[in-house]
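I hope you will forgive my troubling you with a question about protein structure. Here, with my thanks, is the record as I have it:
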Amino acid sequence: MTIAYAFRPLLTAGMLALSLPALAQPSAQTTIREEQVVKVDGRAEVWRLSWIGPVKPFCGPDSGDDVITMPCSGFAYGEQGRLVLSRTLPGGQLDDRLDLSPLFAGSDLTDHEGNAVLPRWPILDEDTHRLVADDATLAAEIRARPPVAVIKLVDYDRDRKAQEFLIQTDVQPGGKRFYVAVGVNRTTGRLDWLRSAARPDRPLVLNWAAWQALAKGAQNIDVVRWDCGDHGSEVLETYRLSVNAGRIDVRLRTFACADAGGNGGLQQEEPY
């Protein structure tokens, strides 16, 4: 039998538009999660990730050893809420902003209430035994740690401008983490998420290895999405990746798993 976990289709542009709530009113509480000075076309801009309205824990410091389970992989110790990315020009005026919460609407996350989720404090290897032992002093120590940096700019679409960063939007069985790249659209000059050439109607969601391959200039490279035998899978799924001058080509390829080890023939290939 094939894998028990069906591939979840991504949100289309229309679905995102329907799910996109109106931008918050000025009276809504705004909490700056992170800000960075970013050079865009030679000018310095301030990019901010901000929570709009209430911020709640997600796999937070008080969640006990649940934070070391698969559903929290990549998100611990985290927060959830309405998340907006904005750009401010040197004069201080608001230039552009993008609501990121709709990116999480199609994820497998539980208890995120339709919100965006970001890790807030880093989880360390040495935390594991203290979490299992229910160390009462650990939560306060976690909250004293410097926050996890989210805006780490990389040129994922190879347009010679490092203006994109990754946001984890999902985790699937085995702790497989999936991400969307957010940055400046090379055509419109506005904040947007990266999309593939074949599916411009939806954000491109890939695993960590695939994004790193794109950052290195992938040309017809296969990166494993789901391996033979993983959670009972009898197929191998790969991304076939190419990227050049802002154009990202992705095809989802499915191979049979050979009985005696190794991979069998190509069963299916489709634009992704």
